[in-house]
Specification:
Blueprint lengths: L1 E4 L5 H11 L3 E4 L3 E5 L12 E4 L2 H9 L11 E3 L2 H10 L4 E3 L4 H10 L6 E6 L6 H5 L6 E11 L5 H8 L5 E4 L2 H10 L6 H4 L4 E3 L2 H9 L5 E3 L5 H16 L2
Parallel strand pairs: 1-2, 1-9, 4-5, 4-7, 5-6, 7-8, 9-10, 10-11
Antiparallel strand pairs: 3-8
Length: about 240
């Protein structure tokens, strides 16, 4: 059983290492690369809290030396992994939501934040946090601090492996990654073969583009987290290999 990881670095290598600890071999074919965006951030003293939906936002702010002025703010992270990264970088008051934008909005609303929320985000957003919090009377200032740039081609070894049906499954962590994958493999995987390739997805939203392109062997994590993806990968590998 060999799997293909499509998420960007450095997360792809981290997932590969965790799969290896479960005796699952994996290749890496990142479909996006993070680029920090230039620009000036608004003064931190105008915000009552920080919202985070990605560790990439933290990495972008860290690399541009923009984190320290925010350390005294309470942080609301979309999930445990992003919360852990925030604590590692120096935030002391961090609350983790349940892994979805909806749960993050609910967590912030219930905290009764007393002022505008700063939301450093990616250029391509999969959800609208400002819209979700508007009914609660909360203002969200969304500032793009990074962009995930799509790759224009798959790595040659990944193409060869897909063409030879060498991968037991492909892992997807974001809808945009799934969309890019479908575009890049249009001439690599025949429609009939797509129905036989298992795809392991973080959520239904992530899986939607794959289903639209006739990848019908879709496995969904029972929770939008890395732990759930790894548990599903292990269960699937054991089922396929009988071990």
């Amino acid at each position: 059983m060999r799997m293909l990881i499509t998420r960007p670095e450095p997360d792809a290598q981290a997932t590969r290492d965790r799969l290896a600890a479960l005796d699952i071999a994996a290749d890496i074919a990142p479909l996006m690369t993070r680029q920090n965006l230039p620009g000036h951030l608004p003064p931190p003293d105008g915000f009552a809290a920080v919202a985070l939906t990605s560790t990439n936002a933290l990495r972008a702010l860290s690399e541009t030396a923009s984190l320290e002025p925010l350390f005294d703010k309470p942080v609301f992270a979309v999930g445990d992994r992003t919360a852990h990264e925030a604590r590692q970088l120096g935030f002391a008051r961090v609350t983790a939501a349940d892994g979805t934008l909806e749960s993050l909005a609910t967590t912030i609303a219930l905290a009764r934040v007393g002022g505008p929320v700063f939301y450093p985000a990616g250029k391509h957003l999969s959800g609208d946090l400002a819209h979700a919090l508007a009914p609660h009377g909360l203002m969200v200032v969304t500032v793009p601090v990074y962009e995930m740039v799509a790759e224009t081609a798959l790595a040659a070894d990944a193409i060869a492996g897909l063409a030879a049906s060498a991968f037991g499954a492909v892992l997807f962590y974001s809808r945009r990654t799934a969309e890019i994958f479908c575009t890049l493999v249009a001439d690599v995987i025949a429609p009939a073969d797509r129905r036989n390739l298992p795809v392991i997805c973080l959520s239904e939203n992530v899986a939607a583009p794959l289903l639209n392109h006739h990848f019908s062997r879709v496995l969904l994590a029972d929770h939008p987290s890395e732990e759930a993806m790894l548990a599903l990968s292990l269960a699937f590998a054991r089922e396929q290999t009988g071990s």
